[in-house]
Write a structure and sequence with these properties.
CATH topology: Rossmann fold
InterPro entries: AB_hydrolase_fold, KANL3/Tex30_Abhydrolase, NSL3/Tex30
Distance between the termini: 30 Å
Shape: globular
Radius of gyration: 16 Å
Structural class: alpha/beta
Pfam family, one: Abhydrolase_11
Protein name: KANL3/Tex30 alpha/beta hydrolase-like domain-containing protein
Strand order of the largest sheet: 1-2-4-3-5-6-7-8
Helix content: 25-40%
């Protein structure tokens, strides 16, 4: 890992790994999930893949060191601070699980967000669709600039229900993958990783054209 930077958020700092590319005016912010950090295999691999051509930042939410900071408002502000740190005209947000949810909420209200790529979006509680309606309005409003990459065995995302409620959304299913895209074998998990990385890279390239 390169030397980390500190990004100021209100009265505290969060740690970030920043790569700037002078040939691009697009900033990409990659957010991790609730139970990991920026060393997550998907976050890390995407960062190193995308920094070859774009301005990219990966970071740790403050709750990595301070669990009491796991809060939607606090953590949303941290993503916004990362967008500001890149100081680009437009941004693309990539989020894993919890990071995907917050990134989508930002994309709904920020016209400078060109696209949002969601990896394992937590649509509902495990195998429980009772609160599904809480997310649908937001997801419909961002469907024109969002991509959902979902494991076919993800208990937090009912693909059939989602397609029925947000028919215009673009979804890529990773066959056999769970919420973290893990397969039944290490070989399947590695294959899923490669497919996700390629899908994200392709979508980013599409968004900047």
């Amino acid at each position: 890992m390169s030397e980390l930077s500190n990004i100021r958020v209100d009265d505290y700092n969060i740690q970030a790994d920043i790569s700037l590319n002078g040939n691009s005016d697009i900033g990409i912010v990659i957010s991790h999930g609730a139970n990991n950090d920026m060393e997550n295999i998907y976050v890390k691999n995407l960062f190193y893949r995308l920094k070859e051509h774009y301005n990219v930042i990966r970071f740790n939410f403050s709750f990595v060191d301070k669990p009491e900071n796991k809060n939607i408002s606090i953590n949303t502000n941290e993503i916004v601070a990362c967008i500001g740190a890149l100081n680009c005209k437009e941004s693309i947000l990539i989020g894993k699980s919890y990071g995907a949810k917050l990134s989508t909420h930002i994309a709904e209200n920020d016209r400078a967000v060109r696209g949002v790529i969601n990896l394992g979006y937590p649509l509902h509680k495990a195998d429980d669709l009772s609160e599904l309606s809480n997310e649908i309005k937001i997801l419909r409003s961002v469907s024109d600039k969002a991509l959902f990459i979902i494991g076919s065995e993800d208990p937090l995302f009912d693909v059939r229900a989602f397609k029925r409620l947000v028919p215009q959304a673009r979804i890529i299913e990773i066959e056999g993958g769970d919420h973290s895209f893990k397969g039944k074998t290490d070989e399947e998990s590695l294959s899923n990783l490669k497919r996700v990385i390629e899908a994200v890279t392709s979508k980013v390239d599409e968004l900047v054209r």
